[in-house]
């Protein structure tokens, strides 16, 4: 267990923020858009496969 004042990505076994490309100050719309694009990329652009992953029926 850590005694740090803040939980950092390394405490969870994650790469540092800079390595993930994550911007902690993204707006909700931009974050959502990036997530949709990432999911579409993972499923080769197949919207039918992306929809359930994104919770879209």
Helices and strands, with pairings:
Layout: H1 17-20, H2 28-42, H3 47-54
Helix pairs in contact: 2-3
Please report the total strand number as a whole number. 0
Largest sheet entry: none
Structural class: mainly alpha
Span between N and C termini? 41 Å
In short:
By secondary structure, the protein is mostly helical.
Structure commentary:
With about 55 residues, the protein is mostly helical. The chain has a domain at about 25-55. The protein contains three helices and no strands. The radius of gyration is 15 Å and the shape is elongated. It starts with 16 loop residues before the first helix and ends with a helix.
Core attributes:
single chain, 57 residues, mainly alpha, 3 helices, elongated
